[in-house]
Each structure stands twice: as C-alpha cells, then as structure tokens.
Amino acid sequence: MSSAQQKIDDLLDRLNQDRSPRSPHMSGHTPFGGLPPARPSLPIGLNSNSNSPTMQRPRHLAFAHKANDNTEVERRLKEIMKNSGDLLIDDKVYYTDIKEMEHIEELGNGTCGHVVKMKHKPSGKVIAVKQMRRSGNSDEAKRIIMDIEVVLKSDCKYIVKCLGCFITESEVWICMELMDTCFDKLLKRLKQAVPEEVLGKVSVATVEALAYLKDYHNVIHRDVKPSNILLDSKGNVKLCDFGISGRLVDSMAKSRSAGCAAYMAPERIEPDPQNPDYDVRADVWSLGITLVELATGVFPYQDCKTDFEVLTKVIGTDPPSLPKDKDFSTEFRNFVACCLTKDKKQRPKYTKLKNHIFIKKYQETEVNVGDWYVRALESVGDRAAIRKASSPE
C-alpha cells in the first residue's frame, strides 16, 4: 500500500468513528448547519502506532495536559453561563427562562443533537435553536464552546446571527435567527443548478464571512460546504456552523480536525511531512468545490461510491472545473479555477480573492436572490415552501 493510500485510510478511520454516511449526498445535511458529527482529534496520516512525538508523550504529561485542557473548557463554559438565557431579539434584551421557549417543529438532526424551530414567547419571535446534550466529553465541549464563542462575538451580516444561549447542567441551546433553508437541501429540492448571478452573491457572502473570521477572530472555518451556507426569502446568504472551526497560530491551523471529506483540500488529505500545517486556503478550496456543485447541480466527484474514492481522486487527478459546454462567464470560470488550484502555495487567500473581478462585479451588481428563490420553488411546485418563504414570522 502506498503512503498516500495509508494516509487516506487513516483519515477515513477517524472520519467514520462517529459518522454513519459515506457519501456527501447521503449524509442528511441539515439547515442552520445542523450539528456536525463528533470530529477526530488525531493528526491526519497518523494512527495509534505512529512514531510521532505527539503520540509518544509520557502518560503523566498527557494526563496533566488533558486535566488542564478540561479545566480551561469548564472555565470558558462557566463564563458563558453567566449570560445564559439573555436573548437579544430585535435590539431588546430578554432575560428568558428556558420554559418560555415553545417547540414548533424539528428542522434537522445531527450526531451531537438537533436543530428545532421554536417560538420565544415573551417576544413572539420564531427562531432556530441548536440543541446539544452535555456528555462530559471534553472534545465535544470544545466544539460547543467554539460554536458559541464564534457566533456570539461575530458582527458580520454574512454570518448567521446568534441571539444568545441557554446552558444547563445537561444541555446547551444556541439560539439563532431563523433562515429558510441551506443550499444543500435547496439543490436536492430543485434538482437543477443555481444561476451564476446568484452564485456571485453566494461567493461574495462566503468570502466576506470567511475573511471576517480570519481578520477579527483569527479563526478558520474548516467545514465550508452547501449545507453550511444558508438562505432566506429576503435574499440573505449567510455562513453557519462553527463547531469545528479552529484557532490560527501564526496564520496556520495546527489541528488535524476534519470537516466533510468530500470538500477537503488536498493539503489536508495528504499533508506535506515537512510542513503539515494548513491555512485559510483550505477553506478556499472547499468554496471552489461548493461552487462547482451548485453551478452544475451535481457533486463534482459524483461517480465515486466511497469517501476513499473521493479522497484518492482529489489527490491523484486534476481539480474539478466548470463544464466547457455550459454558458458560464470567463470571470466565473477563472474564479473557480483560482479556488481549485491544487498547489496551496499558488491558491489565493482572501485579500486576493476579494479583489478578483468576479467578486468585484457581484459586490456592485444588484441581484434579487430572494425573488429567484421564490420563483425556483414555484418552478418545482413546492407550495408548502413557497408559503413558508412568503409568510411573515
């Protein structure tokens, strides 16, 4: 077995520890980011028999590190708990008892919990609530804290707005603005590609959101994909789900925590042994894969039956591109090609991306994304979704 195959096998072993589906289109993606499966913590390419110095840390040192880690997690969680129940809704703070939240319907399920639509009875506002159980697992606690901290501290119109949270001894609820759907579910519903002008606005929103995370919070998202890009009937496009986001050290991500294998950049699948760290350009690759999927209506590696085949193709073949027989602009083709540059050193970061002619064009061009969304639903006769998109809260 080649070293590349071994690395892919090791990665898949960790990806599948807590994940049942193997295909990106059979994974039951949920709107509002759903809830990510529990993520692996071992470095890609290493297994329990690795000779890595990290894996050979003496037990008493590893235990001390773990204890310190858990103490820090608990400290941060207790700090957040001080504001548990304080919800900012329509510029007014409500000191809310969890019993004042009325369940309306389920929106989606994930490995770690579920997302529900709820009514905040004191204000009458309908919101989305990501509900997670506190299991005592420190890795899960870290993901919860990362998700809460990123959305609570973010002030960017392209990132889903967090209204506050509830933290009890057994559960964590993250309260968010309610969006209509995610692009993954919408693509399945429409069974047709998304127009280039709409993807122009999607690209602007996603690049701006990712750049904001990097510039203001020193964070890399690590799980950019259609299910984590949300849409509403007003035409707002927003990024969500920050549970596996990572802190950057000297602009590099040290952790090997995985996102969805299908959208993973080559340097995360097969790290350079001399320079295994990766940076925001890994998310740029994921955006490129996402745009190809939305622009064509099909996942670019659709012929692959397993994650292993997908990852092998990512490493061993040329990057996907927009079909030559489709009527895409030169600017869009070039933007996607930039995102899907295989050599990470040649792939642009956000400053360069934001100056790309395609992004510049759609920063200025008016596109009624909300109107397109409603008309797209009408085209497939989705009356329930049309009523939902057209009705006030």
From TrEMBL:
Q: Which GO terms describe its cellular component?
A: cytosol
| Domain called Protein kinase: residue spans | 101-359
Q: Where is this region: Disordered?
A: 16-56
As its record notes, the protein acts as a catalyst of: L-threonyl-[protein] + ATP = O-phospho-L-threonyl-[protein] + ADP + H(+); L-tyrosyl-[protein] + ATP = O-phospho-L-tyrosyl-[protein] + ADP + H(+); L-seryl-[protein] + ATP = O-phospho-L-seryl-[protein] + ADP + H(+)
Q: In the record, which residues are listed under signal peptide?
A: none
- Biased composition regions of type Polar residues, renumbered to the chain: 46-55
Keywords of the record, alphabetical order, are:
ATP-binding, Kinase, Nucleotide-binding, Phosphoprotein, Serine/threonine-protein kinase, Transferase, Tyrosine-protein kinase
GO molecular function terms noted in the UniProt entry:
ATP binding; MAP kinase kinase activity; protein serine/threonine kinase activity; protein tyrosine kinase activity
The UniProt record lists the EC number as 2.7.12.2
- Provide an example Pfam family for this protein: Pkinase
* GO biological process: one example: regulation of multicellular organismal process
Tell me the domain of life: Eukaryota
Its family?
Belongs to the protein kinase superfamily. STE Ser/Thr protein kinase family. MAP kinase kinase subfamily.
This protein's name: mitogen-activated protein kinase kinase
* Upper taxonomic lineage: Eukaryota, Metazoa, Ecdysozoa, Arthropoda, Hexapoda
Q: Which gene encodes it?
A: LOC115883425
